[in-house]
Amino acid sequence: MAPLSEAKQLETLLELQRELALEANVEKVLLRITLAATFMLDADRATLYVVDQARNELWSRALTQGGERGESVLAINEIRLPLDGTSLAADVARTGTLLRIDEPYGDPRFDASVDARTGYRTRSILVVPINSRDRRRLGVLQAVNHAGGPFRADDERYAESLASSAGIALEYVELSGALAGERLRVVKVAEEERHRLARDLHDGVAQTLANAALGIELAQRRAQKDVPAAMADLELLRGRLLESQKGLRDILFALRPLVLEDGGLGAAARALAERINGQNGSRVVARRVDADRRFAPEV
After folding, report:
1. Is 24 within a domain?
2. What is the pLDDT of residue 40?
3. What are 244-252's contacts with CB under 8 Å, separation 24+?
4. pLDDT tens, 241-269?
5. What's the domain range around 154?
6. Of all residues in the chain, what percent carry a pLDDT higher than 90?
7. How many CA atoms lie within 13 A of 13 on its CB side?
8. Is the N or the C terminus of the chain less surrounded, counting Cβ atoms within 10 Å?
9. Contacts of 108-116 spanning 24+ positions with Cβ under 8 A
């Protein structure tokens, strides 16, 4: 295949960026970038490794092979390489330095055992780091066997452009995963809060109301024989109901205090301090909670 023109290289990069702009599926990102790599770099094979810092490894599930457009995909299981091991991909992941190897078998970092098992012959390799915008290492892009022999200086430049696009795409995947995790955390917290609220209502207000209903029935019966005693029982019930009312207000305050709606965060902080002041012998005072402006309701 004849080398691609600058215009064709730019067109391929722009098409890749459009396709990956809002792609959160890491499998699709790996596949699309490696397909573009085989095409743009005129390589027989390409692999994109992702850095797994938690396991100190590089992993990949995408390996594309040859063809003028690099459109065939080899069926492979997940590849995992130790980040501190001896391999070209791990070396680039650690150092962040692009490698162009014209004679892989002469490089001690090259693992020839894969060729020995598969019968494949690696003749040239180009490996480039993939970074995030804050220069964190996200992965490594590796292209193997340029159709015309060794990879060229222009191929290095094209590979670095591909790596930049890959970095943006992988960072979006990472952020999407973090956002999904945060959403799950919020849902879990909300569910736990609902369970707590249901438990507080059942154990507090609901029990008090049930006992009050029974107490009123007993007081009615007692009033037929001893009105003063029945009135005393009702007075006790009144005290319990007032205490239950306070407990209900505490629950409502914890959910969303009305003072927060009316007076804002400063007023709510003062109200909270007043509410818990004196509990367990503590003294709570709100200081410097006034603000020149109120936050938006969603804050």
Report:
1. yes
2. 85
3. 244/204, 244/205, 244/208, 244/209, 244/212, 247/200, 247/204, 247/205, 247/208, 248/204, 248/205, 250/275, 251/197, 251/200, 251/201, 251/204, 251/205
4. 887 777 777 777 766 666 666 777 777 77
5. 6-179
6. 20
7. 19
8. C
9. 111/86, 111/87
Using CA atoms, how far apart are residues 241 and 63, in angstroms rounded to an integer? 71
pLDDT of residue 101: 93
**Counted domains in the chain:** 2
- Tens-digit pLDDT profile for residues 110-152: 988 878 877 889 999 999 999 998 899 999 999 999 988 899 9
202 and 150 inside one domain: no
Q: Do both 194 and 98 map to the same domain? A: no
Partnered with residue 88 across adjacent β-strands are none
Position of tokens 């004679």? 103
Same domain, 82 and 150: yes
> Distance between the two ends of the chain, CA-based, in angstroms?
57
Residues 125 and 15 in one domain: yes
The reply to whether 278 falls in a domain is no
In this structure, what DSSP letter does residue 48 have? Answer: E
Q: Where are the alpha helices (DSSP H) in 75-226?
A: 88-95, 113-118, 153-200, 207-223
- Give the per-residue pLDDT at 67: 43
Answer yes or no: is 288 within a domain. no
Residue where a domain terminates, one of 179, 210, 233 = 179
Q: Are residues 42 and 112 both part of a single domain?
A: yes
Q: List the one residue out of 62, 25, 27 whose CA is nearest residue 45.
A: 62
Q: How confident is the model at residue 88, as a pLDDT?
A: 92
Residues 6 or more apart in contact with residue 61 via CB below 8 angstroms: 27, 30, 76, 77, 78, 79
Q: Is residue 99 located within the same domain as residue 209?
A: no
Whether 167 and 97 map to the same domain: the answer is: yes
Number of H helices, E strands in the chain: 8, 8
